Write the structure tokens for this entry.
Amino acid sequence: MHVKLIECPRDAMQGIQQFIETPQKVAYLNQLLRVGFDTLDFGSFVSPKAIPQMRDTVEVLNSLDLDLVQTKLLAIVANVRGAENACQFEAIRYIGFPFSISETFQQRNTNSSIQDSLKSVEAIQELCVKHHKELVLYISMGFGNPYGDDWNADLVAYWVSQMDKMGIRIISLSDTIGIANPQSISYIFKELILRLPHIEFGAHLHTTPFTWQEKLEAAWEAGCKRYDGAIMGFGGCPMAADALTGNMATENIVSFLESKSIVSGLNPIEFEKSMQLAKQVFPMH
């Protein structure tokens, strides 16, 4: 059984106020490339004002050692301009775009409405097809939101169906602020995988140190085979109410798969080196 593991150092780094120097980013990303992840979410083409930590994405990309590496690169964008920039780089395989089904969060995250963002998705998908990239669409607030905006499983399914009509074939459901529970995770993944078997659904789950296993178990039992994580759980949404809420720790995903007798395909020696290097790269809280 093939499971895709996506490592997300970009998500781990982007909220850190102290700038991580470019050589340190490059060294960490090059180490991660040796581990054997399916995909590396390495950087983003967004405004330096909005995300100062990612202002050196192009410099980082040009310094990566991509020879003989099977891991594919993913870059996040927040608008069409970002996608146009990302598409200029042959080394980038995937373009990621966060599409929130919460109007409030979409305004906060990309400074546009859901309808405007839908037009952006359409334009970005056209760019990806033209430049031989693949769009990874993230359904932000996929399991609920704290703003009082409408949310239910049918709403999630509706927006997923709109993406399906555009030909988007990788959709990752994001537990943006860590409020999903096993029941909602199980129900939504089962419904979508049953309705749209031709789409690769992923899980981008934010979690506390105490709830990761039940969330993974629910996604796994529902048929999800694509998981985003970040070593040691760094990063996550700064708007989460619980300060302990971060990205799903990659080492927890690996141990979970091992408990199911599923081979992760990662190089354990290089993974351990990455764990040790992460302690130097990220400020420890």
In short: The CA atoms of residues 153 and 274 lie 37 Å apart. The chain has a mean pLDDT of 91.
